[in-house]
Structure formats: structure tokens, C-alpha cells
């Protein structure tokens, strides 16, 4: 899937060629280049950048100076390139696009996960990822120190509001899923109020999601759950209110903000030397 994504991204950017570079340089021109951080960040996407340039030109020399998950300061060089000028320029934007998005996610994940650790709360992502980019988005989350929720619908059971509405209630939905899948998979149920929390408990749900509740409502729900199930907070959690939710004592907080609205980090590629053969 990642190979297909890289190829698609390169095709999208190159089209029928690079009309600018192709009319300035020849296959004989060579250059040195560096990718540098223009702000502090957790770097991510180094291996993807390597694969991008390898697809463009396997003869390019790719020298990483950092690895995914490293903290990088503004002005630091993260990798160097040596080879055909045309190849460097053809891969530049695609490699940077991947690295900038992934580094943004990794940086936010580190910040949020460190807040969670202070209170013993696990911070996890959601499926609110860029279409086609989920594996890379979730990899970047792990590089920043947060954890992954389910990768896809097939990974684990999560009975959400629409399942409950269509099945006729939490108890009926849990009963049907438990009869179908057996005793080994955990069952998570989404709840929006105390009555639903109580119904999920009586249905012996393993994980109870407290969806779009305020910190005060979460605190009340946790008293009802009383450690009988894993309590996961989800919905409406962001950088500004994360600590308030952590203070409630929830076990897990899932944040769509880790992937759906994190700003990319700023990296740039610069030619540092050239030679014409």
C-alpha cells in the first residue's frame, strides 16, 4: 500500500515530466542537497523520503542524519542527497510533503502523550486520517509516543451510535456481536450519557467509550463504571482541554486531532553544491 501511495504521489507531481528542470539540466548534471528543519519538531518520514528518491533514481546517494522519532531543532539538517540534479528536483516536493505531514503528527503526538503520561492516561489516535495515508499517519503517531486505536474496521469491535440505533439498543447490539464472535475479542461500546453507561456495564462491555462528554460528565461516568471496564474518553478533546480530561482519571483518551487537524512541520530542501559533467 505504501509503495502504491508513493508511486501515486510521484505521478501526481511529475505528470509528464518537470518542464522547468528538464529544460535547464541534463542527465549529466549532478548536485548535493540537504533537507533542513525550519522549526523545532519530532522528525518523521525519513524512510518514506528515502523510498521516494529511490523510486525516482536508485543511484541517488541518500544519507540520513536523523531517524524517525528524533527531536530536531530549527536549523538542523536531517538528511543529505548526492546525485543527479534532475532526480533530486523530481523527488523534492513529494518527499517533503510526506515528511512535513508525518513530522507534524509525530510532534503533536509527543506533546499530547507526555501530557497523558503525567496522569497515567494513554493517548491514542482514531480513524480520522487522510484517505490513503492511514498507515503513515498512524506510524507517525507511534513515532511521537502515542498509541494506535484500531487501524481499520476489521481490527476490533466498536459498537457506535449508528450500530446501537439500528440494532435497537446497546444490550441487543452486544448480545448479537457476542454470539457471533465468541469470547476472545474485546467489545467496546460508545455511550453518550449515564443511562447508556449503565446499559453498557450491564451488558458486560470490556471498554466503554464516553463520547462527547464534558470533564464533569466523564468524572460522573467513571464513578458509575468503577473500574469494571476500561474507560475511554473520545470526542471534542484538543490541545486546550486535554489536561482537564486527563485529570478525570480516564484510562484512555482517543483524539482525532492527532491526525485530522495537525499542522504540517516546515522542512526545506536546498541545493548546496553542483557539478556539470
Automatic annotation (TrEMBL):
It is an enzyme of class 2 (transferase). GO terms for cellular component: cytoplasm. One of its GO terms (biological process) is NAD+ biosynthetic process. InterPro entries: Aldolase_TIM, NadC, NadC/ModD, Nicotinate_pribotase-like_C, Quinolinate_PRibosylTase_N_sf, Quinolinate_PRibosylTrfase_C, Quinolinate_PRibosylTrfase_N. Pfam families: QRPTase_C, QRPTase_N. Pathway: Cofactor biosynthesis; NAD(+) biosynthesis; nicotinate D-ribonucleotide from quinolinate: step 1/1. Residues 105-270 form the Quinolinate phosphoribosyl transferase C-terminal domain. Coiled coil: none annotated. Residues 18-103 form the Quinolinate phosphoribosyl transferase N-terminal domain. Its EC number is 2.4.2.19. The keyword Glycosyltransferase applies. Keywords: Glycosyltransferase, Pyridine nucleotide biosynthesis, Transferase. Substrate binds at residues 93, 126-128, 150, 160, 190, 211, 234-236, 255-257. It catalyses: nicotinate beta-D-ribonucleotide + CO2 + diphosphate = quinolinate + 5-phospho-alpha-D-ribose 1-diphosphate + 2 H(+). One of its GO terms (molecular function) is nicotinate-nucleotide diphosphorylase (carboxylating) activity. Hexamer formed by 3 homodimers. Belongs to the NadC/ModD family. Involved in the catabolism of quinolinic acid (QA). This is Probable nicotinate-nucleotide pyrophosphorylase [carboxylating]. It comes from Elusimicrobium minutum (strain Pei191). The lineage of its organism: Bacteria, Pseudomonadati, Elusimicrobiota, Elusimicrobia, Elusimicrobiales.
